[in-house]
Amino acid sequence: TPAVTSAVGASAAATASSDFLVVFCGPHFGDGFAFTREAAANLVDEEVHMRVEQLPTQVIAGNEAVLARAHVLVPFMTPVDAAMLDAAPLVRLVIQFGVGLEGVDVHECTRRGVHVSNIPAESTGNAASCAEHAVYLALALARKQRAMDESVARGLLGSPTGLALFGRTALIYGCGALGEQVARRLAAFDMRVLAVRRSRWGCKGRREGGEAGGGGADALPAGVSEGGSPEELGAFAARADLVVLTCTQNESTRRLVDDAFLAKLKPGALLINIARGGLVDYTAVSSALDSGTLGGFGTDVFDTEPFPLPLSDAPHAALLRHPRVVATPHVAGVTDASYRTMARVVVREVKRV
Question: Which residue among 200, 305, 321, 352 is the active-site one?
Answer without folding.
Answer: 305
